[in-house]
Amino acid sequence: MSTAATPLLRARDLVKEFRVGRRRTFRAVDGVSFDLARRETLGIVGESGSGKSTTARMVARLIDPTAGTLEFEGQDVTAAGGSGLRAFRGGVQVVFQDPYSSLNPRHTVEQIVSAPLRYQGRKVAGGYRDVVRDAMARVGLNPDHADRYPAQFSGGQAQRIGIARALVVEPRVVICDEAVSALDVSVQAQVLDLLLDLQRERDLSYIFIAHDLAVVRQIAHTVAVMSQGTVVEQGPREQIFTEPRHEYTRTLLEAVPRIDPAWEAARAAGETHEREDTR
């Protein structure tokens, strides 16, 4: 297979079991497989408890899979450790859900954003400050605020700090685990636009974990739908959203609030004050 045709990231039959009590185990993820192409976004959607975040943590090697394999740039990294794991994490970074809980409140932005560089053991002549300031500017933050602490930033700004931290090591893949779900709608749109701009500029690939199908439709090229630890449907974005094949996918789509054009027209004309049904 040619390098051009090889997926950047490939997961095959990933399984994760957690011990519950002395003799029982709970299978949170059961046989998840997918390919992530270069410069593309895979959206993984499902309800809370569907296993999507556990899948993300396995793919990032934050937790080890019970079974299955993970390949990055054609290399098996399922059991990588030591320098191999550090190298993998240089290529695959994570942006977490809660922008505040994922940032050490006692560290400055400079300390937070430079942390992956220190973990990687990358030396920078003159220190990390200029690299951090460049990363902050790229995500729309004022570089002069590098000495401030997370509590001094809004939720949207704090999430941009998390994105800057992920990008500072020049990764190939960024896993966004519910990265906009804690943000207001207007701030969500700004962060999504930023992610899309960065993807075009840096040839990034994303795994975008979300329960909000409307958000996934804006950013994903392909979509995997998870339920009870398994992928029940997977395919191109428009096929999933316009011709879903699995009943669970149809149920998720039917739960998305929709605007009633007739009601909106009446509201604009001042003819109604109440919305009876938005779906």
TrEMBL record:
**Family annotation (Pfam families):** ABC_tran, oligo_HPY
Q: Where in the cell is it found?
A: Cell inner membrane
Subunit info here reads: The complex is composed of two ATP-binding proteins (GsiA), two transmembrane proteins (GsiC and GsiD) and a solute-binding protein (GsiB).
**Which UniProt key words apply to this protein?**
ATP-binding, Cell inner membrane, Cell membrane, Hydrolase, Membrane, Nucleotide-binding, Repeat, Translocase, Transport
Q: What is this protein called?
A: Glutathione import ATP-binding protein GsiA
Q: Please tell me which top-level EC class this enzyme sits in.
A: translocase
One Gene Ontology term of the molecular function aspect: ATP binding
> Which residues does the UniProt record annotate as the domain ABC transporter?
9-253
Which purpose does this protein serve, as stated in its record?
Answer: Part of the ABC transporter complex GsiABCD involved in glutathione import. Responsible for energy coupling to the transport system.
Among InterPro entries, the record links this protein to: AAA+_ATPase, ABC_transp_ATP-bind, ABC_transporter-like_ATP-bd, ABC_transporter-like_CS, Oligopep_ABC_C, P-loop_NTPase
Q: Does the keyword Cytoplasm apply?
A: no
Q: Which reaction does it catalyse?
A: glutathione(out) + ATP + H2O = glutathione(in) + ADP + phosphate + H(+)
Record-linked PANTHER family: GLUTATHIONE IMPORT ATP-BINDING PROTEIN GSIA, TRANSPORT ATP-BINDING PROTEIN
Query: Which PROSITE patterns did the record assign?
Result: ABC_TRANSPORTER_1 (PS00211), ABC_TRANSPORTER_2 (PS50893)
Could you tell me the EC number(s) of this protein?
7.4.2.10
Family, similarity comment: Belongs to the ABC transporter superfamily. Glutathione importer (TC 3.A.1.5.11) family.
